[in-house]
Design goal:
The chain is of the alpha+beta class and 75 residues long. It contains two helices and four strands, in the order H-E-E-E-E-H. It folds into two domains: 37 residues; 37 residues, Wheat Germ Agglutinin (Isolectin 2), domain 1. The protein is rod-shaped and about 90 Å long. Bound molecules: zinc ion.
Length: 75
């Protein structure tokens, strides 16, 4: 009886470890998906073209799609 109880406890322990690993892998996959999500888009103040914020040229809180449009807006 004691041995059967020990086997059951070991089986529960293994199941717990497996479920924790599975959950950890799932959350890691989820956070990686969040990182590769679409970047924030901003509209060019001159022509309205949407460009990723990281690629846009920022000046005085305005965004431009290119240096040419930044210069043109300064004008
Ligand atoms: Zn533009």
């Amino acid at each position: 009886m004691g041995q059967l109880l020990r086997i059951i406890i070991i089986l529960i322990g293994v199941w717990l470890v497996l479920s924790i690993i599975k959950r950890a892998l799932a959350s890691r996959r989820k956070s990686r998906a969040d990182q590769t999500s679409i970047p924030k888009m901003v509209a060019c103040d001159l022509c309205g073209t949407h460009v990723p914020e990281s690629e846009a040229i920022c000046e005085d809180g305005r965004h431009y799609c290119s240096e040419a449009h930044q210069k043109e807006a300064r004008g």
